[in-house]
Model the fold of this input.
Amino acid sequence: MRKMRKKKTYIALLLLFLLNLLTAQNIQLHASNSEIIVEEGKKIQEAIDAAKPGDTIIVKQGVFFEHLIINKSLKLIGEGYEGTVINGEGKGVAISITNTENVVIKGFRIENSALGILVENSWNVTIANNNLTLNSRGILLEEVNSSSMQGNVVKRNEYTAVTLEKSNNNEIRGNKIVHNTPYGIYLYDSQGNLVVENYVAYQCQGIRLENSSNNIITKNFLEKNSPYAISVINSYKNNITENSIINNNFGIFLEDSTENFLNANTVALQSRGIHLSKSTGNILRNNNLTRNWLYNFGVHGEEITHFVHDIDKTNTVEGKPIYYLVNVRNAEIPEDGGFVAIINSSRITVENLNLTKNLQGIVLAYSKEVIVRNSTINNNFDGIYFKFSNNCRIEGNTIKGNLLGVRLEKSINNIFFHNNFIDNEQHVEADSKSRNFWDFGYPLG
Done:
């Protein structure tokens, strides 16, 4: 009898244990997968406040006049941006995500706010398949890491569409960003971000990097941005590759920027193609510049380092290779060249070339004893640009239809002999420190 009682007690305890375990599992399962439904006429913020970390809030179609604050991990899912609208009533931040991680915002139309989505000091935030239209600003990330923006439409916002400030290792992929001012995508003081497969059009500036490094800008399509499709300012070691840059004002513009890698970009039908200004040590490979109607390529600087780049002949202008020589002695430029730069070099011969539609036909910077002979240099901004280059011989060339035929800056003892200057806006401009020899007298020869 005693044994029977013990056995019953044991079975009862076992059943109680299993019941408690099952209940605990059910509670845990419910806590991690809870789903809250918000119907039109209800408040989304009340659902956010009531939600536990990890919950999902489903927002039904309707217009919600709210300014949401999220400071916990959750998923906020609208039924689609065609019908689920958050209206900021012309002020404030429509959705603010602060000091949290693992948040998803998906499927909303966000409109009529001072700022559509603000993310601050957060990690692993996903903003996907939303439409942000007619706000003052679209999306702003400040000190945000390892987050993503995918498949959003960001259009007709008064100021920048997407801004990253001090934000690292984020992904901006497959968004349509149109008709915003001044920037489509703006990275400031940000590192290690991926900007890929976005359509960026009708901005003042399509993609701008400033004080930023080690970002990848790839496979984007940029058109009808003015003045710049891609601008890189005071930034370094960014990778700008395989972008289609069509029918903008400037294609790619670098200023005060170093060691950036530009590879396999198509830059066509701009007024200006690629321009390197006061920048150093950038690497260009396989870029195709064609039918840019003012100029395809150019470089500008104030000191020798601004002209030192690694640009090989895989880069082409109108199908012809760029020859960019740095620290070279005793060489000849092939006759198929489309742009020629001779930097800190000597005893180089340029002969029988046809150089057209660039910022400069030929750049001679910090070089000496260069011969330019029997070439046609036409329809450039500067036909031949001299900077600190001496003892060169320019003979038998046709220099025609350029804004400025020859520009001389601090260059001496160069000989100009039997050249034909035809229909340039100005044939020659020389500063007071340039002293040179002209066979028929300055500015002929």
Summary: DSSP finds two helices and 52 strands in the chain.
